[in-house]
Write a structure and sequence with these properties.
Blueprint: E1 3-5, H1 43-58, H2 62-66, E2 70-77, E3 80-87, E4 93-96, E5 101-104, E6 108-112, H3 123-126, H4 129-135, E7 145-155, E8 158-167, E9 179-183, E10 190-195, E11 209-219, E12 222-234, E13 237-254, E14 270-273
Parallel strand pairs: 1-14
Antiparallel strand pairs: 2-3, 2-13, 3-4, 4-5, 5-6, 6-14, 7-8, 8-9, 9-10, 10-11, 11-12, 12-13
Length: 274
């Protein structure tokens, strides 16, 4: 198989479980450490988490999202239909169109025959691109995601509540990315997402694109958008359409993925190590 190496930092999360002793003594080296307290949140982080919780409830609730193992749908990408299935717990993925297959088996991203037909020309960039956009706001509860309240704002004459999202060092392929969520102040539903993409140019990445979410449908108790359209974004204002439209249909959540072999690397595929 052909191999293309992409070096990126891994996110390491240490879970420390402490044991409480009836005696209030300093533990020795042989004793288990005391349970660590959760880090204190700033005022803006606390307000951000509170607003995110309202958004999650409006979209059906995090508990409902986490009750499923997989998500699949058909994506209309400029007239080309792409099937995608993603494992919600470990994020393995598989995409298939008439011209290519792309996947992630938990270690490497891969494409067959190659990644020339996909966005960015990279399987590592593309395999979870649309999944992450359709998975917001639920994916904002992933480890390493930092959410701040960004205030009440007006965009093109419409009022919104806003959140700023950043990522801890080493989280994902592009921890430098920044997202802003604009929520309906009455329903708390996500309406606009603005973002930067630093995957290809980290030095010059900036928030210059707005993705408008619309045509929500109820899918097994969760509110899911079926239309996303990109617009120009500058100085807090939305401009003309970028002619970048994503249409989703046949959205379905799976309680069990029956055939996990779909995520495995195909013979002859080009691999991109993550």
């Amino acid at each position: 198989m052909k191999k293309t190496r992409i070096f990126c930092s891994a996110c390491l999360i240490a879970l420390v479980i402490g044991c409480k002793s009836e005696k209030k003594e300093v533990p020795t080296e042989t004793e288990a450490p005391m349970e660590r307290e959760a880090p204190l949140l700033s005022t803006e982080e606390k307000k951000g988490q509170d607003l995110l919780e309202k958004c999650l409830i409006a979209h059906g609730g995090l508990e409902q999202w986490r009750s499923f193992e997989g998500l699949e749908y058909q994506l209309n990408d400029k007239g080309k239909m792409v099937y995608q299935i993603t494992h919600l717990r470990d994020r393995r993925a598989y995409l298939k169109s008439k011209k290519y297959e792309v996947g992630f088996n938990g270690k490497v991203a891969w494409s067959l025959p190659n990644a020339e037909q996909v966005s960015g020309g990279s399987a590592a960039f593309y395999y979870n691109l649309d999944f992450y956009f359709i998975g917001v706001p639920f994916l904002l509860k992933d480890p390493g995601v930092v959410v701040h309240y960004a205030g009440k704002v007006v965009v093109n004459g419409q009022d919104y509540e806003s959140l700023k999202v950043t990522f801890g060092s080493g989280v994902g392929l592009t921890p430098e990315d920044v997202y802003y969520l604009y929520l309906d102040p009455k329903t708390y539903m996500l309406q606009i997402l603005t973002y930067s993409i630093s995957y290809f140019d980290r030095e010059n990445a900036g928030v210059n694109s707005a993705k408008v979410y619309s045509d929500y449908v109820d899918v097994q108790g969760l509110k899911m958008p079926t239309k996303m359209e990109n617009f120009e974004w500058k100085d807090g204002s939305m401009g003309k359409s970028k002619d970048h439209l994503r249409l989703f249909k046949d959205i379905r959540f799976l309680t069990k993925i029956t055939d996990e072999s779909v995520f495995e690397v195909r013979p002859g595929a080009v691999e991109e190590k993550i």
